[in-house]
Amino acid sequence: GRELVESGGGSVQAGGSLRLSCLTSGYSFLTYCMGWFRQAPGKEREGVALLDSDGTTTIADSVKGRFTISRDNAKNTLSLQMNSLKPEDTAMYYCAADPANCESDDDADPLSVFMDDWGKGTLVTISS
Q1: Is residue 57 very low, low, confident or very high in pLDDT (cuts 50, 70, 90)?
Q2: Does residue 1 surpass a pLDDT of 90?
Q3: Which of 45, 110, 44, 102 is CA-nearest to residue 71?
Q4: Cα 82 to Cα 11, 25, 78, distances in angstroms
Q5: Phi and psi (nearest 5°) for 19?
Q6: Closest to 29 in 3D by CA, of 66, 62, 77
Q7: Taking a C-beta distance cutoff of 8 angstroms, is the pair 111, 47 a contact?
Q8: Long-range CB contacts (< 8 A, 24+ apart) of 70-74?
Q9: Which of 88, 72, 81, 64 is CA-nearest to residue 14?
Q10: Which of 20, 23, 40, 70 could bridge to 80 as Cys pair (CB 3.0-4.6 Å)?
Q11: pLDDT tens per residue, range 25-43
């Protein structure tokens, strides 16, 4: 069956970096929309970064210039490089996949994309 397994979370100080990885099984990056989402305590889940099957990326304004999404087809791994981390980046981060294109259902939010499959998440904690 298909599976998404996140790793790389941890606790770092503000200004630091982390690299999240999502080891995928049963997915083809060439046909799936892949993404990273996060949910902070007491807040709704939000999209962080999307990587479409054609290589197009969409990055949330709140992390633009600091976070980079990428994929390694040979290793079946989706990554999220996070630099210049801030306390407000503290959240559970989830890897997600959907067989359709990364098409938003909300004109006001390009990261409002339905995703069919989700990993269990990896916790990121940033201290000030």
Answers
A1: very high
A2: no
A3: 102
A4: 13, 23, 13
A5: -125, 115
A6: 77
A7: yes
A8: 71/29, 71/34, 73/29, 73/30
A9: 88
A10: 20
A11: 999 999 999 999 999 999 9
Distance CA 7, CA 9 (A): 6
Task: Pull the structure tokens for residue 47.
Answer: 């999209």
Task: Identify each DSSP E strand in the chain by its residue range.
Answer: 3-7, 10-13, 18-25, 33-39, 46-51, 57-59, 67-72, 77-82, 91-98, 117-118, 122-127
- Classify burial at 33, counting beta carbons within 10 Å of its beta carbon; exposed 0-12, middle 13-18, buried 19 or more: buried
Which pair of structure tokens corresponds to residue 128? Answer: 């000030």
